[in-house]
Write a structure and sequence with these properties.
alpha/beta; BirA Bifunctional Protein, domain 2; six-stranded mixed beta sheet; three-stranded mixed beta sheet; 10 helices; globular
Length: 276
Amino acid sequence: MKQWYFINSGPCSASFNMALDEALLNWHSEGSMPPVIRFYEWNPATLSIGYFQRAEKDIDLQAVKEQGLGFVRRPTGGRAVLHEHELTYSIIVEESYPNMPQTVTEAYRVLSEGLLIGFQNLGLDAYFSIPDTEEKQADLKKPRSAVCFDAPSWYELVVEGRKVAGSAQTRQKGVILQHGAILLDLDEEKLLSVFRFKNDEIREKMRQKLPEKAVAMNRLVDTPFTIPQCVEAFKAGFEQALDIELVPYTLTEEQLAQVKLIEKEKYANDDWNFRK
């Protein structure tokens, strides 16, 4: 059984979270660190946008500022996510890892198996999303909105037909970085308030449709899930799915300094966050 590192960062700033994910990718590509699974949260609540999104076009930046939200551009693709009541995960593993599919879609399936088992560990009847109509598949290629939870992509996790986790992936230096949001609760009004819509009619249609497309875990149970409970369930899920042992790891002072340098030069910098 292979050993991977396990890091539980807890609540961190948006820029630090993205810098640490990038640093872990760099260290793994250099061979100085084995594959890693990391859990983290966000302080303050943050809106992250995908690598290819245009902030001014899709996001109401004044609303983000007025509500005291963090803002960051991810190194991964996908659409915007409001990170608030959630557990976020990241997986860092080389593309050449044994039995790792070469295609992005099939790699999602393998890496997200741990999420599937994690939800099942919590008693939720989760399953993989497989877009089964031409309309759904066309929406993946040309999304109708900038909202991540507007529609599930290939092999994302759904419960009762509604998306409960959203993930994104990038491949750099021979390494896969996949990270994503596991929803415990969802404030639909706050989510919609930070997006630009062409008109009020489109916004209202999204308001009506969103509860049909996304659901938070705590809407499905009588007793709310806690973050520690989710960490335990999903950690066990990844260990089972990937046939690995997760070994707790703490960053050294030198590594922490490298993360803070990446944070300062990139993710805390407007040139990166507003570059498109």
